[in-house]
Write a structure and sequence with these properties.
Belongs to the TRAP transporter small permease family. The protein has helices spanning 2-43, 48-64, 66-71, 87-122, 136-164, 180-202. The protein is an all-alpha fold and 203 residues long.
Length: 203
């Protein structure tokens, strides 16, 4: 079990690094989108390459961060029934879900997407849009992203079993503080209070 937990920690470390790197892709996507829109409005010039770059960046963010999202337990859950069960039963649900749903589905997508990428790579597939980008880098993101999710699923499975054996904490208890939504709501409230205070001082 110690070796498996060490493997889980290694997988989590990789997914954390990838997740942090992807945050910069979000900034890049915003800058590309804003620059493209500004140039189009001011100079009436547009580029399919820039538009497709936005799509590629969005795909990279969505796919590469999937493992990190599972690590942080931020995927959408519908726990109407599971929340009523004991913690031990909930852990068994996690194990069954990973073994019989997450891993098979992700493995199938990886298997099907690899020839999809290889065909584009071998033929140097280009966008059908004038001035568009090559397609294989975007298609490569599919097997890579699902490989990251499979790795995160294996780590989650190890930690769930470890928790049942009393060897590690519950992998679902990843929040040491407030959620991202709560932090955002507080930030919005603070900014509103600051604007209101500034408005009163102006009068």
């Amino acid at each position: 079990m110690n070796a498996l937990l060490a493997l889980s920690r290694a997988i989590d470390a990789v997914n954390r690094r990838v997740g942090r790197a992807v945050t910069w892709l979000i900034l890049l996507a915003v800058l590309v989108s804003a620059t493209n829109a500004t140039i189009r409005k001011l100079f009436n010039v547009s580029s399919n390459a820039w538009l497709e770059l936005q799509w590629y960046l969005f795909g990279a963010i969505f796919l590469l961060a999937s493992g990190y999202t599972l690590l942080k337990n931020e995927h959408v859950r519908v726990d109407v029934l599971a929340s009523r069960f004991s913690r031990r039963t909930q852990l068994w649900i996690e194990i069954i879900g990973v073994l019989f749903f997450l891993l098979p589905a992700c493995g199938l997508i990886m298997w099907l997407s690899w020839p999809f990428f290889m065909d584009a790579f071998v033929n140097n597939e280009q966008s059908s849009n004038a001035g568009g980008l090559i397609r294989w880098p975007a298609k490569l993101l599919i097997p890579i992203g699902f490989a990251m999710l499979v790795a995160a699923g294996i780590s989650h499975l190890i930690k769930s079993v470890g928790c049942l054996l009393g060897r590690c904490p519950d992998p679902r208890d990843v929040h040491t503080g407030k959620s991202a939504e709560e932090l955002l709501a507080e930030e919005i409230a603070r900014e509103a209070q600051q604007r209101e205070a500034a408005s009163h001082e102006g009068h």
